[in-house]
Amino acid sequence: MAGRKLQGFSIYVSLPTQVEATPQVHNVVNNFDYQGDLVSLRRLHGESNIDYKKRLWDVSVHPGGPLYEGVINGIARDLGLLRTPSLKIELKLDSSGSPIASNPRIEILANRVILYSDWRTTGTAVIDREIRTYQLSDTGYYLDDLAVAINASEYFSATLLGSTRPNTISSTLVRGNSNLSIRQEYVHSDKLLVLEHTNIIRESLIFFEKNIFDKEVSAEPTADGQYMVDYINGEVQSYLQPSGQSYCSYHAANFPMTVDTVQIQAFSFQDSDFQYELFHHNVLDSGDIENSLPNGEGSEIYHQLFKRTEVFWGE
User: Fold this and answer.
1) Buried residues in 26-39 as b, exposed as e (16+ CB within 10 A)
2) Averaged pLDDT, 284-288
3) Residue 303: is its pLDDT beyond 90?
4) N-term to C-term CA, the chain
5) What is the pLDDT of residue 2?
6) Order of strands across the sheet with 226-230?
7) Cβ atoms 234, 180 nearer than 8 A
8) Closest CA to 175 of 130, 131, 109, 111
9) CB count, 10 Å around CB of 261?
10) Is the pLDDT of residue 169 over 60?
């Protein structure tokens, strides 16, 4: 190596006097997680036991399913956005304490709320008013405006519940109606039958024991097969005593009605109310409304769907 000069180099590393780091949250598995495995509901990242318990409880209260409400329940729960009771609708009463509406019903639809003063299962109905809730310019777009519009009815009143914000958008209301459909209720062996529900919808009460309940009368029954119904209190008085081995079915108006809101909105393109909001309309000579070309919102929705769907034209 004679005649050669060795070359060398050194690297100087300056270490910081303080090291900063962001702690990462890791879930600690416990009994809540084991319960979640049983119902296929995993804990969200960093979710506390208290919040996780609420979602586990929600599985049985608001079950998931393939239909509208089940889909809403499942998506909302998986995202940690649970349903919140937000609007309470009650019946207005007359001086005797009875509901003013003879057959009340509320329907929460995709774009409006319908108030019925006299709804029948036969398809005939008297609509008190319809309150549109979809467009910003509509009367009931916000929940506080919707409550004001309902309170203007002769038959119904509405109040916001808990900490519900007045400017909550009404389209977040979970769709449904105020009626209960009782498919099969046991009929006791008693001439005075007290049904499980009140505010029975007229023309909906059906008895399977026809020889006992053959003809409805408006006064106390005095002959075989006659019976009288107190629709408000859900009481049935019959002339003959039922066998105690039969059933009845009916619809009942379920008030007060509590309506939930949820920060998930799902619409079906088969829903005529939703379709109404996506198209311009032509009024036919018959007075019926026919959808024409998509409006601005409809065009945007269809455009986004085509972008996310594999569509092939031709063969």
Assistant:
1) ebeeeebbeebeee
2) 86
3) no
4) 79
5) 46
6) 192-194, 235-238, 226-230, 215-216
7) no
8) 109
9) 21
10) yes
From 216, 208, 218, 201, select the one nearest 242 (Cα to Cα): 208
Pairing of β 226-230 and β 215-216: parallel
pLDDT at 116 over 70: yes
Q: Which two tokens stand for residue 287?
A: 């007075």
Q: Which two tokens stand for residue 255?
A: 């008030």
Q: Produce one character per residue of 140-176: b if its CB has 16 or more CB atoms within 10 Å, e if not.
A: bbbbbbbbebbeebebbbbebeeebeeebbbbbbbbe
Tokens of 181: 């459909």
Residue (of 92, 206, 7) closest to 214 by Cα position: 206
Transcribe the chain into DSSP letters: -TT-------------S----PPPP-PPP-HHHHHHHHTT-PPPTT--HHHHHHHHHHHHHS---SSHHHHHHHHHHHTT---EEEEEEEE-B-TTS-BSSSB-EEEE-SSEEEEEEEE-TTS-EEEEEEEE-SSTTSTTSBHHHHHHHHHTSSSEEEEE-TT--TT-BGGGBPPEESEEEEEEEEE-S-SEEE-SSSSBPTT--EES-TTTS-EE-SS---STTEEEEETTTTEEEESSPP-SSEEEEEEEE--SEEEEE-S-----TT-HHHHHTTEEEEE-TTS-EEEEEE-HHHHHHHHHHHHTS------
Closest CA to 110 of 147, 77, 135, 79: 135
pLDDT at 1: 45
Q: Cα(159)–Cα(144) distance, rounded to whole angstroms?
A: 8
**Residue range 132-149: average pLDDT?**
95
